[in-house]
Design a protein that fits this description.
There is one protein chain. This protein is of the alpha/beta class. It has 15 helices and 23 strands. The protein has a seven-stranded mixed beta sheet with strand order 15-16-17-14-13-19-20, with helices on both faces. It has a six-stranded mixed beta sheet with strand order 10-9-8-11-12-22, with helices on both faces. Strands 1-5-4 form a three-stranded mixed beta sheet, with helices on one face.
Length: 477
């Protein structure tokens, strides 16, 4: 089996081999990927630092061409790359192709942004003095991404980093290196100068820690757990570097008495269980008012009976496997915790056997939950949702906001009054009305509040806030 190597200073470098296993079929080896050493990471950082002066001053057309060419290849290969993604991560092939398409759209967007770089020219308060306000790349950007969106999240970090003239040291999740490697290979062949983009795969304790310890990394953008995010922040403060954190969520979907029941159920099922619930924007708390509660629960259970849990590549599969054994055990531990706390399992929560050995779990729906339970406070990151009964809209809003996180918040209602009030008063970075809490466009800002996020927003034009530094220049004439 060929070894997929790390990319350091424009060269593919050997490393300790590690197998990438398909969670839908444990007998299927997706590929063999090299794990980087501390010395490899240090070499990648040095290469990125050396490449920064030239790349940060490169022409707009050069950056545009790299990003545009990469977008074109991603679009052309979306079916192939989608199949690869589904094999290594476990989301359905349709979802995986959608994610690959999203990555292509992101590179397409930032190819355009490379031609729209702008500043300001303003008058000074002093005579004969002019002022220019411009944005410049910050330097070497360390990028650390999670396993649940193994090509889209790398895309929405790498594309703006390159667009604004930064160089990159990229560490993908050790669990899902295949999609990341394929993306870097595309970018490497698109015309990037050596050292501008470096790929270092492997364990966070080695690769990630070396990036955190380096004074030559000017900025770090991280998506992952809240615990690791705190470590990124602490290390970054020590080196006085910029850092951006996207972390956990415990997202509510409020369902009011006046909601369209069909719409509400589809929003809940999609948000809570699709992508196997392994999304930071998943609807893990379903906050439902009294008059519709029983009908909603009955309709949810009936809808969940029709969900097909099976091999991610199989036609007709709605939900693929959990990503690995550790995540499956964590999901099951939380299901046990929910029962012990007094919530009632209304549907699912069982391991499933399929034609191939895999980490299959039937989506779980709890009822009689309270907002104080651990299953309502802590991110499970699996296909597990809890229904919390409330008396009215005011209590629903209070419960929705009663969380240490604030990424996404949704409401299902036909009341313009309540929808408008909720959009204004939901304590979250993303608010959805009659839509699932998961699923956003590629050209708008993404991020949350409270314990979910720290730093400037990702995606769209707002990405420039993190990936650039502002310079104010004065000229006397």
């Amino acid at each position: 089996m060929d070894l997929h190597r790390n990319l350091i200073d424009g060269e593919w470098v050997e490393g300790e081999p590690a197998l990438n296993i398909n969670p839908s079929n444990l007998d299927d080896v997706v590929g063999c990927y090299a794990r980087a050493t501390k010395a490899d990471v240090e070499a990648a950082i040095s290469a990125a630092k050396a490449a920064f002066p030239a790349w940060s001053r490169s022409g707009l057309l050069e950056r545009h061409a790299v990003l545009r060419k990469s977008a074109d290849e991603i679009f052309a290969r979306k079916d192939e790359l989608g199949r690869l993604l589904a094999r290594e991560e476990g989301k359905t092939r349709a979802e995986a192709i959608g994610e690959v398409t999203r990555a292509g759209q992101i590179f397409d967007f930032f190819a355009g942004e490379a031609l729209r770089l702008a500043g300001e020219a303003i008058p000074s308060t002093r005579p004969n003095v002019s002022i220019e306000i411009t944005r410049e790349g910050v330097g070497v950007v360390g990028i650390i991404t999670p396993w649940n969106f193994p090509i889209a999240i790398p895309a929405w970090k790498i594309a703006p980093a390159l667009c604004y003239g930064n160089t990159v040291v990229f560490k993908p999740a050790d669990l899902t290196p295949a999609s990341a490697w394929a993306l870097v290979d595309i970018l490497h062949r698109s015309g990037l100068p050596r050292g501008v983009l470096n790929l270092v795969m492997g364990k966070g304790s080695v690769v990630g820690q070396t990036m955190l310890d380096s004074p030559d990394v000017s900025a770090i953008t991280f998506t992952g757990s809240a615990a690791t995010g705190k470590r990124v922040a602490t290390a970054s403060i020590e080196h006085n570097r910029k850092f951006q954190l996207e972390m956990s969520g415990k997202n509510p979907l409020v369902v009011l008495d006046d909601a369209d029941l069909t719409v509400a159920v589809e929003c809940a099922v999609n948000g809570a269980f699709y992508s196997t619930g392994q999304r930071c924007t998943a609807s893990s708390r379903l906050v439902v008012t009294e008059a519709i509660h029983d009908r909603f629960v009955a309709a949810m259970a009936e809808r969940m009976k029709g969900l097909v849990v099976d091999d991610a590549l199989k036609v007709g599969t709605h939900i693929g496997p959990v990503v690995d054994q550790a995540q499956l055990e964590q999901d099951e531990q939380y299901i046990a915790i929910g029962r012990d706390e007094g919530a009632r399992l209304a549907f699912g929560g069982q391991r499933l056997n399929r034609a191939t050995r895999g980490f299959y779990l039937q989506p779980a729906l709890f009822i009689d939950a309270t907002n104080g339970m651990r299953i309502s406070r802590e991110e499970i990151f699996g296909p597990v949702a809890s229904v919390i009964r409330v008396k009215d809209y005011d209590e629903a809003l209070a419960i929705a906001n009663d969380t240490p996180f604030g990424l996404s918040s949704g409401i299902c209602t036909t009341s313009l009054k309540h929808a408008t009030h909720f959009k204004r008063n939901a304590e979250a970075g993303l608010v959805m009305v009659n839509l699932p809490t998961a699923g956003i466009d590629f050209h708008v800002p993404f991020g949350g509040r409270k314990g979910s996020s720290y730093g400037p927003r990702e995606q769209g034009r707002y990405a420039s806030e993190f990936y650039t530094s502002i310079k104010t220049s004065y000229t006397f004439a």
